[in-house]
Amino acid sequence: MQKFRLYETRSKFYMIGRDKNRTFWRVLKIDRLEPSELNIVEDSTVYSEIECCDLLRRIHEGNKSTGGLKFVTTCYGIIGFIKFLEPYYMLLITKRRKIGTICGHTIYAITKSEMVPIPHATVRSKMAYSKDENRYKRLLCSVDLTKDFFFSYSYNVMLSLQRNLSDHNTTGQSLYETLFVWNEFLTRGIRNNLQNTSWTVALVYGFFKQVKLSISDSEFNLTIIARRSRHYAGTRYLKRGVNEKGRVANDVETEQIVFTDAHDGRPMQISSVVQIRGSIPLFWSQEASRLNIKPDIILSRKDSNFEATRLHFENLVKRYGNPIIILNLIKTREKKPRETILRSEFANAVRSINKNLRGENRLRFLHWDLHRHSRCKATNVLGQLGKVAAYALKLTGIFYCPVTPNLRLDGLCEYSYSENDNVIDHCITEQTCINKDNVDKETEISNCYCSGDENKDYSVKPQMLQSGVLRTNCIDCLDRTNVAQYAYGLAALGCQLQVLGFTESPYIDLDNPLAKELMQVYESMGDTLAFQYGGSAAHNKIFSEKRGQWKAATQSQEFIRTLQRYYNNTYLDVDKQKAINLFLGHFQPQQGKPALWELDSDQHYTIRKLGLYFADDNIRSSMKRSLSDGNIISESDNTIRNLNVTNCQHLSEKPDKRFLSGSTPDIFTCGSDICHCRQIYEGMVKGQNCESDHICYDEHGDACDCSNFLDVDWLSSSGNSCEEELLERSTSISSENIANELVTETSASDSGSSIKGRQSGDGELNKDSNSKYSESFERWVTQGEMLFV
């Protein structure tokens, strides 16, 4: 159902819902006489329009003595129900707007929403009007549903296109339990009560942009979707690293969809590719400080065996398959070690995990200091990132399928109404398993693309599948990461246009108008995601330079954004985090328990099913800080404890490729204890010029000579040394941090790459005749060995 009308009497709310084609009407009854309980009943009768009008007339006649039946509002779906201290509230979408279509299914954004109290005013107690109740209401309303939330009635927008067209097991209630549905908690009560999702909409939070582009006088549609995970969600300094479940902060899946409309007897064609970003999967944190614009990094020792890190990558394998390619963009050289501490520990974690993995199951790990290379005049940053993107695409492939008309019609989304007249989608079991080593064969899956022509039947025949994913991170996973993701997106676009038949070569030059238009979309996505997590637009220095923007204007813009991010992180993020915790159900208010705003930090509590539990009050005393001078303050090991992890799927287990870019149902509480830091080895990766040797140090500070850590010079160089800038822009806020405290995160990348669309599962490298790659780089690509550049 897509449109609803809400009516009220003194004793009940009546929600009248109908389908888009006005063929049937349903009635939902909500009791208003219970002050603190939610009682919902769905009328089993399916009404016609005349029958529904007659029902409303009879309800009005029967309630005339108490005021009759009154119209409240028109709405377009229930977001959910929430209770603070006493009454329940119903959240409704009252205005919507169309923002795009996928496979003929409309995607909407919220224009206006309302929160309606359920109990009638005559049965509410004083608690319903208390200061705490009103404060909770204001806090929840600070989550702006009109910004960056989107939904669809008939397309599972929380899943990737590949999964939509091949997965028939994730339907109905299980769709709400996937990690990208943000109102899972709010809808849990009504879904469990009614055992259906007919009255609610599943909200995805992130970014959605659809544009029409052209090449050689032929048009195609480009859609960029960013889906932010609801697990371990929050703000920059309050959500860092990984939690005990293996979920990371700032976990965002980005999908790039390219499709053409059917015309002149040619079938509609569609292609997609998925990449992800996420915080470094270690237990680490930072505390916002009014005196330090770049807070110290705190690395915890609570997971000495990297079990949470292992869980994280096992989850990625379940979602995307193998191989998992890690592009780590953090610094390799610092005067005062900060990022380098995490870089070294991340390398240790991957080394530990890879010891038990073989072949394509090994994590492909690439260290690439984007900040250093972007300052090196001899380095073509965009070209280098383009080559990384090309090889990542060679390893994972992309999703591609033509849609053939005049065959049978099956559903793209199970038990969901199509956007087209007289079409109801019903998925049927997949007919043939898709083998990774034989993806070029036409394997028919009984799903359907529903176009505007409801009289035609369609059959989807995927010819290429994506297996594996590129995971990119820097420290915040905002600025540097976004430009690297643009580089990957540009390389992917070249491959997509090639398989769609628009071009003969997958290479798109950085000066091509398509590259510039794609950059605008990725820049917009980067700004949106940065506002959500970091409090300001992204630092887009390299984008600005590529556009030819005046350098002084770029520097001024970057400086303002840094101050804006600092202000939001320091003064506003605490309340923003509390609102997110309330919306997601991580904190559930209870009478007689401490209020949410009485908790001094998001890190000091966890929410369990049975109520509120506080972490150990002595936790803070057991921290070890990475101070600005690089020293580690050691304390006793009394608080060291390992995670209890059982029954975890091993990374080498192969998932079903149909489940690319989704998640298994997983409902858990969020929170973390902060224990003291892992003892970091004293030997850090030494600073180098662009052509200096790359040395990896082991846990004890000794140089490693293991096969996973390589001395690499994998790209051709001009022979010029890298010149560091003489002066870095900085702001002196703390007397202990006079310089280098306001180094903005640079981002870099654009990329054109020369690769062929993968038609089969061969693992050979397709070398560019104009480029020279070392044997060690080829081994990284084919065997998963570690690479440091």
Low-confidence stretches: 406-411, 413-457, 603-650, 663-772
Overall spatial form: globular
Structural class: alpha+beta
Q: Report strand %.
A: 15-25%
Number of helices: 14
DSSP helix fraction:
10-25%
Rg of Cα set: 27 Å
Q: What is the tally of beta strands?
A: 26
The biggest sheet amounts to: 15 strands, mixed
Question: How far is it from the N-terminal to the C-terminal residue, by CA?
Answer: 54 Å
Query: How would you state the average pLDDT, rounded?
Result: 75
Model description:
- This protein is α+β, with helices and mostly antiparallel strands.
- Among the domains are: 1-202, no CATH class; 209-407 and 460-592, no CATH class.
- Helix content is 24%, strand content 20%.
- It contains 14 helices and 26 strands.
Which features characterize this protein?
15-stranded mixed sheet; globular; alpha+beta; 14 helices; five-stranded antiparallel sheet; 24% helix; 789 residues; single chain
Compose a concise summary of this entry.
This protein has 14 helices and 26 strands. By secondary structure, it is α+β, with helices and mostly antiparallel strands. The two termini are 54 Å apart.
